[in-house]
Amino acid sequence: MVDTERMRQLDALASHQAGVISREDLLVAGWSQSGIDRALSSGRLVRIVNGVYRVAGSPSSRRRSQVAALTACAPDGYLARRTAAEVHGLLPVAPGPLQLVMPHHRKAPALPPGLAVVMRSRTLSPHDVVAQEGLQLTSVARTILDLAPTLSSSALAELVATGLRLRVVDEMELSAAVDAHPAARGRARLRAALDLLAEDGRLARAEVEIAALAAIVGAGLPRPVVGLRILDHTGAFVAEVDLGYPRARLALEIDGYRWHSTPEQKLADEERQNRIILAGWSVLRFSAQVVRREPEVLVAAVAEALGLG
Fold first, then answer.
1. Sign of the dihedral defined by the CA atoms of residues 13, 44, 32, 69, in that order
2. Fold classified for 222-305
3. What is the four-CA torsion angle of 146, 152, 157, 161, rounded to 10 degrees?
4. Which of 152, 140, 146 has the alpha carbon at shortest distance from 90?
5. Three-state DSSP state, 213
């Protein structure tokens, strides 16, 4: 095979794998080891890890890194934890090495530190893994279970709520994952998150409200009502607040940037808050940033307003 034809074949083989190709793929396609060595020497192929290459000029991407790491760990490697959560749409893409998992009896390959970290698991079963978009990864339920011990209670509750909202997982699948892995470190925390959502938590209009609820309950404060409807002294509807304490007549509002950032929305929020106050209620407002990054500020303010500080 002349070099031009060989390079066309190489491009065709790698085009379906984000520019990544393995030694085995090339040998099956009729390449010799000497031909692979020449392509490496010429720079047409670039070694990523032993036996895994990228075609020179292929664009760098998260996808290429995922395919390369999985190819190196084939056939029993799976994207896991935060990396799997990104692919499932549960978390935004974050910089840093990928996270993979392999069965404990398999030896993990030596990967470049910047590419991926490979963990091994004694409890990885066929029910815990799926294929999506040509990638092997842990299921949504197993992914959330694996992330549970690494997240705060509020972040975990928000992650579960996101999965339920996106309909990529349901309560039965999450409960089954908890039951199937009795020794998992995140088991109790995930069960608590499910219990939190099993009541009126489903009425929350945004995941950040679930995060606020989890922070409050996790701190030992009384559980507020989710989606509380406030009425005036005549019984007329005033507003529905994110969270509230009817006895204390305390309303909690969580301002997500998406819904509260326009001038029109800010004006509507002010008018709404005035109606709530005129109905005899106190209002505490918290930004999504405070809920997610400084939940202790939220907890302290609620405790003080309830006279529990």
1. negative
2. Endonuclease; Chain A (3.40.960)
3. -70
4. 140
5. helix
Q: 187-198 and 140-147 are packed helices; what angle lies between their axes, rounded to 10 degrees?
A: 110
Lateral strand order in the sheet of 237-245: 225-231, 237-245, 250-255, 282-287
What the block records as the tokens of 153 is 């209670």
Identity of residue 22: S
Tell me what pLDDT residue 9 has.
Answer: 78
Distance CA 298, CA 43 (A): 56
Q: Where in the chain is the domain with CATH 3.40.960?
A: 222-305
The number of beta carbons lying within 10 Å of the beta carbon of residue 110 is 10
Token pair in block for residue 29 = 């396609």
| Residue range 28-61, pLDDT digits in tens | 988 889 989 998 999 999 999 999 999 988 888 9
Q: Start-end ranges of CATH 1.10.10 in the chain?
A: 3-60
Q: Which two tokens stand for residue 281?
A: 């209620």
The predicted pLDDT at position 2 comes to 46
Angle, alpha carbons 42-8-115 (nearest 5°):
60
> What is the amino acid identity at position 227?
G
**From 1.10.8, 1.25.40, 1.10.10, 3.40.30, which CATH number describes the 3-60 domain?**
1.10.10
- 8 A C-beta contact, residue 206 and residue 251: no
